[in-house]
Amino acid sequence: MRISTRSNAFPGSAIRGVNEEVVRLESSGVRVYGFHIGQPGLPPSRELLLEFTKELLERPFEYSMYTPSSGIEELRETIAEDYTEYSGVKISSANVSVTAGSAEAILAAFMAIIDEGDEVILFDPTYLMYEPVINYLGGKVIRVRAREELGWEPSEEDVKAVMSRRVKAIIAVNPDNPTGRVLSDSMIKLLIDLARDYDAFLIYDEAYRHLYYEGSHTYAIKYGLENVIALNTFSKDPAMPGWRLGYVIAHEDFIKVFNRVKQYTNLNPPTPAQYAGLLYLRKYKERYLSETLPIYKSRMETMHKAIREYLPEAVVVKPKAGLFIFPNLGSYLRRLNINDYEFAMKLVREAHVAVVPGSAFGEVGKFHVRMAFARESERNIEEGISILANYLLRALGSSE
Q: Is residue 248 within 8 Å of 97, Cβ to Cβ?
C-alpha cells in the first residue's frame, strides 16, 4: 500500500493503547480500576435526556438534517450569551463557531493558521493531541518546560526565551490536562502580550473551565480578543463526550476563515447534539454543575489523600481544577529500572489498574502517570491506589 508518509505524524495515542487493554480485560469479565480515560464519571442530566428525547421524537426531520457548518444560529447565540455571562466580555454569535468536539476545533484552527515551518509553542507536559496535528501540517513544535516545582506552570523567562517572529501560536491548556494546573493571571497576561507583540495567536484550550475546586477560571479574552482562539467542549461539564460537540470563540475575522476551512473537516456538527447542547445551556447547566462538582471534588480529595498515604515517595501536586492528578513515581520506577509506559502496561495487565504513562504528554512527564479521578467512586479510588501501591512494593521486593 502506498500510504502517506505524513501519516507517520500520528503515532497513536497512549491513552487508547491503555484503553484497548482495559476493553480486552473487561470483555473477559475482569474488574479494572479505570483511572485512564479523561471523561466524566457521571451521566448527563436525566431530566435533560428525557426532555431531549421527547423533542427529538416531535421534530425528527429537523433534528436529522444538515445544519450550517458553523452550527445552528440558536446555539451560537446561546453560547455567546453564556460565554459573555461567565467571562464578563461581550461577544456575539459572529465570534462563535460550533464544532464536532474540540478535536475538530484543534484540527481546523491549525489548518487555518499554520504554514510550512511555522513554530508553535507547547508546554511540556500537556494534552497530547496538539503536537501530531502541528507536525502533520508542517509546523515545528517548540516545547517549554512546565515546572513541577512551580505547580506545573512554566517560568516567564523560559517562555520569553523561545519567542520570535517565527512563532505563529502559543498553546495554553487551562486548566491543564494532564497536570490539573491552573495558570496564574500574570502568566495568561504575559502570553497575551507576547502573542500581540509577535503577531501570533494564543490557542486557549479551556475544556475544563467549569471544573474548579479552588479558585476560578480566567478568561483570556478579557485581555483582548484579536489574538485569542478559545477552544471549548461539551464533553466535560455536561458529560457528553460521545455526542461530539464543541465550539471556538475568536475574533469575527478569524471565525470567517475558520468556518471556510471547517467545511472540509466536517460538513456540520452532529445535529442532534447541537439541540441537546442548546437545551443544556438554556435550562440545565447551573443545576447540573451544582450537583456534580461536589462529587468530583470529593473524588479528587480522596485520590490525592490516597496517593500521599499509600505512595509516600510519590511527588504529587494537588490539582486545582480538571479531572486529573499527575503523580511523579520516579522514586519507585527508577529502582525498578522501568519506564512509565512499561509500568502502565504491566499495571493494567497484571494488577488491573489503568493509568496513562506521563511521557505520553511530553518528555517532562517521564516517570509520572496521569490518573483520572472522575470515573470511580471514593471507595474504588482508595482500593485501586492501594492495589497499585502493593503492586509496586511487591515488584520492589522481588527486584532487591
A: yes
Query: For the chain, what's the residue count?
Result: 400
Helices (H), 130-251: 130-136, 156-161, 185-197
For 217, 257, 284, the CA distances from 16, given in Å and listed in that order, are 29, 32, 31
Q: Work out the end-to-end distance of the chain between its first and last CA atoms, rounded to an integer number of angstroms.
A: 49
DSSP secondary structure letter of residue 251: -
Cis preceding-peptide flag for 175 (omega within 30 of 0): yes
Q: Which of 371, 240, 238 is nearest to 303 (CA)?
A: 371
Residue 154 sits at φ, ψ, to 5 deg, of -70, 160
Rounded to 10°, the helix 252-262/101-113 angle is 110
Q: Cell 494564543: give the residue.
A: 202
Write out the chain's pLDDT in tens, 400 residues.
Answer: 888 888 888 887 778 788 898 889 989 999 999 999 888 999 999 999 999 999 999 999 999 999 999 999 999 999 999 999 999 999 999 999 999 999 999 999 999 999 999 999 999 999 999 999 999 999 999 999 999 999 999 999 999 999 999 999 999 999 999 999 999 999 999 999 999 999 999 999 999 999 999 999 999 999 999 999 999 999 999 999 999 999 999 999 999 999 999 999 999 999 999 999 999 999 999 999 999 999 999 999 999 999 999 999 999 999 999 999 999 999 999 999 999 999 999 999 999 999 999 999 999 999 999 999 999 999 999 999 999 999 999 988 876 5
Q: How many CA atoms lie less than 13 Å away from 231 in the CB half-sphere?
A: 27
